[in-house]
Amino acid sequence: MTAQAARSARRGREARRTAREQSAAVSQPYIVRNVPLTELCSNEAIETIEANAETVLQEVGIEFRDDDEVLGLWREAGADVDGVRVRFPKGMLRQLIATAPSEYVQHARNPARKVVIGGNNTVFAPVYGPPFVRTGDGGRRYGTIEDFRNFVKLAYMAPAIHHSGGTVCEPVDLPVNKRHYDMVYSHMKYSDKPFMGSVTHPDRAADTVSMCEILFGKDFVADNTVCTSLINVNSPMVYDATMLGALKAYARANQAVIITPFIMAGAMGPVTPVGTVTQALAEAMAGVALTQIIRPGAPVVFGLFSSSLSMQSGAPTFGTPEPTLVLSAAAQLARRLKLPFRSGGSLCASKVPDAQAAYESAQSLWPAALCGVNFVLHGAGWLEGGLVSSYEKFIMDIDQLGMMEVLLKGYDTSEDGQAMDAIREVGPGNHFLGCAHTQAHFETAFYRSTVADNNSFEQWEQEGSRDTVERASDIVKKMLASYVPPPLDAAKDEELLAFIAEKKASFPDSNH
Amino acid sequence: MTAQAARSARRGREARRTAREQSAAVSQPYIVRNVPLTELCSNEAIETIEANAETVLQEVGIEFRDDDEVLGLWREAGADVDGVRVRFPKGMLRQLIATAPSEYVQHARNPARKVVIGGNNTVFAPVYGPPFVRTGDGGRRYGTIEDFRNFVKLAYMAPAIHHSGGTVCEPVDLPVNKRHYDMVYSHMKYSDKPFMGSVTHPDRAADTVSMCEILFGKDFVADNTVCTSLINVNSPMVYDATMLGALKAYARANQAVIITPFIMAGAMGPVTPVGTVTQALAEAMAGVALTQIIRPGAPVVFGLFSSSLSMQSGAPTFGTPEPTLVLSAAAQLARRLKLPFRSGGSLCASKVPDAQAAYESAQSLWPAALCGVNFVLHGAGWLEGGLVSSYEKFIMDIDQLGMMEVLLKGYDTSEDGQAMDAIREVGPGNHFLGCAHTQAHFETAFYRSTVADNNSFEQWEQEGSRDTVERASDIVKKMLASYVPPPLDAAKDEELLAFIAEKKASFPDSNH
Hints:
2 copies of one chain form a homodimer. Chain A is of the alpha/beta class. Helix content of chain A is 47%, strand content 14%.
């Protein structure tokens, strides 16, 4: 190739890349809500909850265990520190929280996939945490790193999933103290969507940041947020050393954390929705304020995991009305604090992806979508109270997430959307199928479910009377068979693998 | 028994009855919504839709077929009648509609079960119309009058169902031209909740009114609404003689009708939500206004049945986002017309009560509940696009309806609901299970699902790894086995049976 031809080819490639980037920029890789918020809680009740949370913070306080540094920070900031119990003068935390950004960009290694968390945006991420997996033909077993990679691949391929998430399942075949390397690497290698970091030990949080520095470059990570990680409160009203360590590591590195009160009402909080959300607000405010003491302006999300309890078995229940009330109020409170808000997802207690699973998941998902949750964890794949990542449920759930995206886009009120020409053209008693307007929108008019069977009974029976799980199984297999990895710079890949190998060799395996 | 003892016993019975009635009066036998409405459509878009609907009514018009009386009424009222096509000057229909009540009482033979349709109230009714039934062990077959009675009994026994509905399934074993007697009688005999009348022929509407006069008394029916019946528009923009006949019969008798545009978008209406709802508004306004010409002040409901279409198979789809957008906008439009509003229910396309059925039903039900629908038809039992009444799905759906009732009640903001004592009593790191507040609310704190399994995987497996359908099957059998009919005055019962026998003998059976 001549130099001129090479330049021309380069210009062609650049032009195509620019075109691709511009096209990606037109449609955001997350949902920008265009319908009014659903707010189930009155402003009067919200104000009562805020006042009560301040009372809880002042009178009862929050415990920060096994972390003298944090206790010192609270003392300096003007809180009343009594052993590990910290009490806060009214208004103090709200003032500290004011430095937190109301939204932040989380970058992805593919710039077209960066997400904005907060504001009118909704980001869907997969299930987080299950030690088990379930497959349609293999049943229930412990998760492996292969399962982990599979869920990362499925999430990568699902347009309705905007974020690769974190512990999509526990790779139980790897040692506890080293599996975070393989988990973070899997997100980096098999997906180019944004992801979450390890929080099970402060060192593992630091490892996550180091790996991000390899992937994104040290300078870039110093100035930008490239991971969002999950800090669960040990409700009621306790932060433990593990979570505080991870919180500090991430906040110092300007990486986002989701401060998540984790409340099964009746066990870790009061049985009433107003009581639960009061406690959640107090817990979240303390954690969010702590990030701002550590690094004012660090990105932080007000999180919530709330379920009811079966008073008979003590097991958590999902898809019931009480957590919906808790969620709506908490989302309202987060907005008043000008913080991004996180909740679940397609939650359920069912052991199999049956009608119970679907009812519960749907009744958990719509409040997340309608009440304006910004980061929806457990969007797909959650089964059995979070003990199981289900392949088939993942497929069913991403179909539901796709529908929520259409719903939140709202109404097309353009002249074309008004469809007056269609009504005039067709007139009384005639069919719209053939009219120009219908034909013009034939392909895209309605959300097309990937997994629902809308055929006639007779056709469905002829095809084997297959239920949703069987159809979803097929889709899982097809998707994994057709997976193509997003290209990763070879030098970075090598550097990541070398880092992991060196680290893994530097200390013995352990299951703690 | 002495006369005194008899009088004393009578007084005791009366006192107990009064106490029962008073207790029933405290809690309404329907839902009074206590959370803000979800309104997905902007006021600006709503005004555009209203203006466009007026344009449709003026330029395109509505056809009223095979009913010269109705055409005459429109001519007198000032509409432009051209053959069967009627066009309406802008504003004319809105003015006529102004006499319709914004809410009305539908009486039940048990006064404690009367419902108020409209305002902040939500009334749940069962599935309407399926020719088939499905049972967990028997599969899919044509419905019979025994199935019909069974669904009436189940609806009677379900606290979350407020209304006995109408054609809970088609009793295909009875002749078409006489089955309405058995259907209306079944509602009267096996339930004491309010019900719907026959609409398949004007004579059958008249028969329904006659039977109501026997049950409630002629004078009572003259002054009160005792049935609510379903008038479907032959969308797009056509009213046929059958429906007009039933509409006139009921409106003249001051009985309520639900004017229901029945639009599978893409076939009977435009593919866009704004276009669909524009057509629905035009159609509904014409029918509602007609009731007010016939009898100003007659109770009437703005109805809507809206689904999308699979552009591949032409089959209706359910639980997708587009009909939710249509529903929310239509509910907003009905409120601006100060009319009660009706929609479906727990709709789905699935052939079996599996995950597809549940996702679709849940995504159909929450908009009905949250967007302020006053009369929710197809609340329970709907399967396979409305072709099947499913026993097991009925059980699953009433569980969901019960949850919606709790959700719509909203927050308990009382001192007890705030639960500050519980938070103070328990404090950081401790369990709420044993605290006084939790113990006081142990039984009623959370909605208890009748059909969900929340046990551990191990226990669930030990008990046979049963899915939701199997558990629902058990409940069906238990409920039907324990059914006790509400007492019906023997003289009225005899009179009803005599009326039916005489009528049935007066003309030959026919399947038309």
